[in-house]
Amino acid sequence: MVETTLTVSTAAQAGTQYTPSTPAAGGNNFANDGTCILVIQAVTNPVTITVTGQALAYDGAAHNQASVAVTAGNTAIMGPFQRSNFNDAANLCHFTSSETSTTKIGVVSSTPKG
User: Fold this and answer.
1) What pTM did the predictor assign?
2) Which residues span the domain enclosing 21?
């Protein structure tokens, strides 16, 4: 399956409006600047989001996988994701979603401007 790349919104002092996306069954990714957070809405069904660690431990096993379970009708915030642990060679952070039909996800960066 092909992953879907989500658009990253940038937070601003005056506020940021973003449109959440429906996660793809084949996985998802976003351009991670190290300050990105995921905003996860479990609209009517519970969902588990798992962010895949890309860095390898001394024994060659991937580490720093992060997961959050969100109950139906609730919203969770996850992150930020350290680039050295979560980014691949293309500076993408990858995650999967256990439920895709009623889940909404947004990605927000808090990188300061100027």
Assistant:
1) 0.88
2) 4-109
